[in-house]
Amino acid sequence: MFDLLGTTLPSRLLLGTAQYPSPAILADAVKASGTSVVTVSLRREMAGGRAGEQFWSLIRSLGVRILPNTAGCHSVREAVTTANMAREVFGTNWIKLEVIGNHDTLQPDVFGLVEAARILCEDGFAVFPYTTDDLVVAERLLGAGCKVLMPWCAPIGSALGPVNIMALRSMRGHFPDVPLIVDAGLGRPSHAATVMELGFNAVLLNTAVARAADPVGMARAFGKAVEAGREAFSSGMLEPRDVAVPSTPTIGRAVFS
Amino acid sequence: MKLMVNGEAHEVAATTLAELLAALDYEGDWLATAVNSDLVHKASRAEFRLSDGDRIEILSPMQGG
Asked: Is A47 in contact with B62 (Cβ distance < 8 A)?
């Protein structure tokens, strides 16, 4: 169990809903992962269209909590308006705040992010900011009212896994009491296990599952990896050593010469 | 009146946001609307009067990461 902003969640895996081969596979992947939070977005609806209705109906049938995002927003104004529209449609004050600053890397515009976070926090939103691993930005986001941080570990959709372990470890150390969710860049279950072993509270991923050859199997694998990583962190891992230490007792061994 | 709806130009007789949605066959409580980049709540659409040149966004739930 995992307490996130006063809500008890059974899983530490948050899953995106984009890029699956079909709605049925999306639904099966959500169930297989064990997740209890999925991310969704808002996009233009065609006149007379029902695409939004069908998708929304599917998501509601899964019985999971919704974390709407502001994906694709490049300005504070866009992000704030999108967040307000999402609150009305989805009926939640949770918002995954994205203010994108670079088209190639999709890295956050951290200046706009802090500004948008302040506006939304003052307006009663629970802001989940998609940010970098920069400690100063993290401080500013907390100062703006954020109660949770979501640093990337690599660019969105890159599947590179944690490219700067030291920065992630430093972030965990600096903010021991802040829920930290690694968002973006995870490619393999072992990546998820690695960041969970560092003490991150949860992970959010999408592409690694949705674009796998078997998304349902991969969703299950990520679910297990997240659980394993967390249990390892909680159980106290052995620190690496430079010398060999026999695991079999040496006392009482037979002497044959 | 000339309006931009989801990035496309429309010439409409509707005078309120609710009338515009009906005229363009938008229906459903899963829709969110904004006029000139500001949210217009569902409950306000019937009274919200449109002006020539307004930019309207009509959004609905979609897959996201």
From this structure: no
